[in-house]
């Protein structure tokens, strides 16, 4: 029997045949030839042909499928690649060719998968490097912006202190330095120290306020 001969030949070559039945993975079901770890769905059956026969109950012609005696082996995944009995060769006589084809196809599948895995690995590595570069740029840009903001705040705090000095000097020179102005000068000096990026003095009322937003 051809099926037994095929199984014996595959096993002698270190391969195997499995019948898989999984109700949840229908695409993985069927009879599989396992060649070097690669699974190929195989189907052995006798060809049938369609003939027209006269109905027993009327003059109408009915279609009927009848056996042809021609045995075929089909590899379902490989675009229905198949072998069949011919006038000069039975299917059993084609076993060496079938085996050679399956082993060659398995080798090709393995090589293609390795190429695909290599490409995928290289692509993932490329994405990783691109992300690392983007993260580095984003981090450096954020740091640079922070320096620019601090520089701007420091300059503003210096301008504010110069303004305070002018106000205080004018008040002293014009005898206007009263208690109310003294309290204001202390308050604004504390605020300048709170705003200055080199000091950032704590201020209970301004807690939680973003200095860069001012």
Estimate the mean pLDDT confidence. Answer: 90
Instruction: Count helical runs.
Output: 3
Main beta-sheet annotation: 5 strands, antiparallel
Helix content: 40-55%
Give the topology string: H per helix, E per strand: HEEEEEHH
Q: Unreliable segments (pLDDT under 50, ≥5 consecutive)?
A: none
Q: Which shape, going by the Cα principal axes?
A: rod-shaped
Q: Termini, distance in Å?
A: 90 Å
Backbone CA Rg: 43 Å
Q: Which structural class should the secondary elements be placed in?
A: alpha+beta
**How are the strands of the largest sheet arranged?**
1-2-3-4-5
Query: How many DSSP-defined strands?
Result: 5
Our estimate of the beta-strand percent is 15-25%
3D structure, described in words:
The radius of gyration is 43 Å and the shape is rod-shaped. The N and C termini lie far apart (90 Å). 50% of the residues lie in helices and 22% in strands. The relative contact order is 0.07. It has a five-stranded antiparallel beta sheet with strand order 1-2-3-4-5. The chain has three helices and five strands, in the order H-E-E-E-E-E-H-H.
